[in-house]
Write a structure and sequence with these properties.
Blueprint: E1 5-10, H1 16-21, H2 29-39, E2 42-49, E3 53-60, H3 65-77, H4 81-84, E4 89-92, H5 94-104, H6 116-130, H7 136-155, H8 165-176, E5 184-189, H9 192-203, E6 208-213, H10 216-225, E7 229-232, H11 236-240, E8 245-249, H12 259-269, E9 274-278, E10 295-299, H13 300-338, H14 341-366, H15 372-398, H16 406-416, H17 421-427
Parallel strand pairs: 5-6, 5-8, 6-7, 8-9, 9-10
Antiparallel strand pairs: 1-3, 1-4, 2-3
Helix pairs in contact: 2-3, 5-7, 5-13, 6-7, 7-13, 8-9, 14-15
């Protein structure tokens, strides 16, 4: 059975300073793959890097490949082996397959369920395909990784629920306003998380952005980014009656918006809901705002609690994802094992003989009364024809040699004669 090996490091095993030293950009990957295939005994290879990991997946030609891949990393990145080897993990066969499936399904991510990792791996795979570094084994493995990642996301809630402060703010806004398309937002200050929240709200279709800042030039600059309107800080209360969502992150020493101001604004708003998000520390918004009818105030602790609850929910859903991954690993191993010559020949014989037998029985029912001897002769005839059809393909499959890639031909034979119908159906 062909071997599959994965060597790498990630946020759990190495600090960012080391991950940076061993990372590969998409532009560097083609040359790195070319060098790897030319200098190390590997048949197929794939390299992918993200901010949290660097991994090399490969099919070795012999037992020396692991040490030589580590040596390749050292040479290519001009980094002594002893500086990074303790941070490496090495997975073989089922463990390598399982790790890849978990990474693709974001079960191994810093934030479980984040969707970016799969897209990054797909880009790396396209580079490997374009430069002929990925072959029969890794092609099948990567497509299965993409398939199981899609299945995990579809059949579990691993990607549901906000797990960042800015996303949590948007999730709360969606709960209060069923439709954000006709809503307006006021941004007070220019804190990073507040800006991210506004960006997410814009992607959810909010209608209008108003930016208020103590330094008016900064308000104008920020409003331009969001295609919004800049207002002076002194005009805050004037515009408050016209917005639905208020996000504040000013860094002021005291409250910049009081309960009394919000109460006056709510009277003009005719009690239309006002959603206030205070991401500042110390807080910008008077906690008493929550006592005003139809005014909803959340501070950073409220949002963090929501994030923590959502993370726990994702982790519960991840258990279902792990089960789907385990099942996919077993099925992929069955396919790998089927690439051995003997199982493929047995499956081919069984397939053709079952077809011959089924067609014989159909014909016998149409031939009328035949003697036992004649029935036996018909059956022997169809079996003989099936064996003669199989003779040359079986002879070819048995004729192994160093001059050809037997794994490729075995895979083609199994596809050609549809020897894995259940596996193929599940792989779509």
């Amino acid at each position: 059975m062909p071997e599959i090996i994965l060597i790498g490091l990630n946020h759990k095993t190495a600090p960012v300073s080391l991950r940076e030293c061993l990372s590969f950009t998409l532009e560097q990957t083609p040359n790195a793959l070319e060098t790897l295939l030319a200098t190390v005994p590997v048949k197929e290879a794939l390299i992918y890097s993200t901010c949290n990991r660097m991994e090399i997946l490969f099919v070795p030609s012999n037992d020396t490949a692991i040490d030589l891949v580590i040596g390749f990393l050292s040479d290519y990145k001009a980094l002594p082996v002893q500086e990074f080897e303790p941070s490496l993990y090495i997975y073989k066969n089922d463990d390598a397959i399982k790790h890849l499936f978990r990474v693709g399904a974001s079960l191994d991510s810093m934030i479980v369920g984040e969707p970016q990792i799969l897209g990054q791996i797909k880009k790396a795979y396209k580079k490997a395909i374009a430069h002929k570094a990925s072959g029969t084994i890794l092609n099948r493995l990567m497509h299965k990784a993409f398939s199981i990642a899609k299945k995990v996301r579809k059949e579990t809630g691993i990607g549901d629920n906000a797990v960042s402060i800015s996303y949590a703010a948007v999730e709360l806004a969606n709960k209060i306003f069923s439709d954000l398309n006709q809503r307006s937002v006021m941004l007070m200050g220019a804190g990073e998380m507040a800006e991210l929240a506004v960006e997410h709200l814009i992607s959810n279709g909010v209608k209008k952005i108003i930016v208020a800042n103590r330094t008016f030039t900064n308000a104008v600059s920020l409003a331009q980014r969001f295609d919004g309107q800049a207002v002076k800080f002194e005009e805050l209360e004037t515009f408050l009656h016209d917005v639905d969502i208020l996000i504040s992150s000013t860094g002021a020493a005291g409250y910049v918006l009081t309960k009394a101001q919000v109460k006056r604004a709510m009277a003009q708003r005719k009690n239309r809901p006002l959603f206030c998000i205070d991401i500042a520390v110390p807080r910008d918004l008077d906690p008493g705002i929550n006592q005003v009818n139809n005014a909803y105030l959340y501070d950073i602790d409220d949002l963090q609690n929501l994030v923590n609850d959502n993370l726990e929910e994702r982790l519960r859903e991840a258990i279902k994802g792990e089960r789907l991954v385990e099942e996919a690993v077993v099925k992929f191993r069955w396919w790998l094992e089927s690439l051995a010559v003997v199982p493929t020949i047995k499956d081919l014989k069984k397939k053709l003989e079952s077809i011959a037998d089924a067609e014989t029985e159909k014909s016998l029912t149409r031939l009328g009364d035949l003697s036992p001897e004649e029935i036996d002769a018909v059956r022997r005839l169809t079996r003989s024809v099936a064996r003669k059809i199989m003779h040359d393909p079986i002879l070819f499959l048995k004729n192994t040699g160093s001059h050809r890639n037997d794994t490729h031909y075995l895979s083609v034979a199994r596809h050609l004669f549809n020897l894995d119908p259940e596996f193929e159906e599940n792989d779509r």
